Amino acid sequence: MRRMLGMVAALALVGAAPAAAADDPLDLVLALEEVFVQVAAEATPWVVTLEVHGVKEISSPFDHGRSMPFGGTGSGFVVDAEGTIYTNFHVVGEADRIEAVFADGRRFKADFIAGDLASDVAVIRMLEPPDDLRFAPIGDSDKVRVGQFAIAIGAPLGFESSVTIGHVSAKGRNSIGNHGPGGIAPGFETLEYQNFLQVDTPINPGNSGGPLVDIHGRVIGINTAIAAGGGGGLGFSIPINMARRIAADLVANGKVTRGWLGVGLDDINPSEAEAFDLDQKWGARVTNVWDGTPAKDAKFEVEDVIIAFNGQEIRGPDELKNAVADAPIGKKVPVQVVRDNGGKDVRTVELSVVLVEKPSDKELQARARENERTEVRAGASDYLSSKVGLQLDSRRGGKGVVVRGVTAGSLAEDADLRPGDRLVEVNNSEVTNPADVAEALQASTRSFVPLLILRGGKERPMSLERPRG
């Protein structure tokens, strides 16, 4: 305890006037405690516990056609004098009846306005809000700093008006539904748009939809997911700037309108960067450009590495997906890509693209099926992918054909071929494109096909079992 008090005093005295040196360390701790007490007192009146009830269809084969009533609790917070409340879609999305319960015990019925499954944001509104309604001050999540205090308020495990304190651990977290040993935050794997604030603030079931606030009592996020582990848990909150943009669309249009580029994307990994002689170690790599899309009109190319979009640095596909979703539709948006120019040189290219509204899931699925048919017509690529388990690329400079991907359990994986390898010879014949590889494999009459690859700048002899049929 004495050591902690000393640390608090030392931190408080950095840059302080000399007179502050006489301050009692305990007084400094008590002053900080008072800040937390005031935040809790001022925020609690605009935080609500949401009690939800509804009926779910039972999908079990033994109970087909039956339904079962359900109930649960979550959290939310009031954002305006009309009684509008922000929360999570997974809290209220299936509810037939919603009640907002305040800390003083008053209850008010609420209507579901709209929700967005892709981001887990929802908006509800009280039918008859009270005259003395208080609502939340909204902060700026873009200015949140890792290490700052983060305070959660809600109804964890049904215990309403609970306040917990921690810190912002990280920003820009994504893929939380399948990250880590055994997967974390189960149930959130399908969230398309993730840009979470990660916190060590204790958050439990029932906190969902409640506010994450800073030390000034301003909302900086919506508490959404948790990940429990042996050493404790992590919390994930939707940044309030992102949530407000989505909520505004939901209130105005009943849905979220997002921009669409029309490309397939993948990460840049170190082995690919080395294989393709790239200095660029981060960005979103374009794996496909669909016909009749903004990307095609803007002359994007396969293997372009997108490093900036609409003035925002792009370090991977998830950041690009969020940036495209937030960008204006129908207006020119600047884009920076790294392009290899057919292996002759690597340069940064400035493009501009005019986004359109993202098509429906049904239309996207139809486009994907058409894209698959186009790949099948390519012949060699289809043969290599289905018979051998290889995806190849010959656009980059240097001899041979680069291994772009290896299918798990395939002949290529059995041969220990890896992404980033260059196939130089197949069946003792030089290869320069995927068609050469397919032809050499099909022409071989041996049980094992000899290969010569380049890995890490060194040639290595290998062999591949000849595909049958």
Topology diagram in text:
Layout: H1 2-13, H2 25-43, E1 47-57, E2 67-78, E3 84-88, H3 89-92, E4 97-101, E5 107-116, E6 121-126, E7 149-154, E8 162-173, E9 196-199, E10 211-213, E11 219-229, E12 232-239, H4 240-253, E13 259-260, E14 263-267, H5 270-275, E15 284-289, H6 294-297, E16 305-309, E17 312-313, H7 317-326, E18 332-339, E19 347-354, E20 356-357, H8 361-377, H9 380-388, E21 390-393, E22 401-406, H10 411-414, E23 422-426, E24 429-430, H11 434-443, E25 448-455, E26 458-465
Antiparallel strand pairs: 1-2, 1-4, 2-3, 3-6, 4-5, 5-6, 7-8, 7-10, 8-9, 9-12, 10-11, 11-12, 13-20, 14-15, 15-16, 16-17, 16-18, 18-19, 21-22, 22-23, 23-24, 23-25, 25-26
Helix pairs in contact: 1-2, 9-11
What would a concise description of this structure say?
By secondary structure, the protein is α+β, with helices and mostly antiparallel strands. It is built from 11 helices and 26 strands.
Structural description of this entry:
23% of the residues lie in helices and 35% in strands. With 469 residues, it is an alpha+beta fold. It folds into 5 domains: 2-10 and 22-43; 45-58 and 69-126, Trypsin-like serine proteases (Thrombin, subunit H), CATH 2.40.10.10; 141-253, Thrombin, subunit H; 259-364, Pdz3 Domain (Roll); 378-465, PDZ domain (Pdz3 Domain, Roll), CATH 2.30.42. Helix 1 packs across helix 2 and helix 9 packs across helix 11.
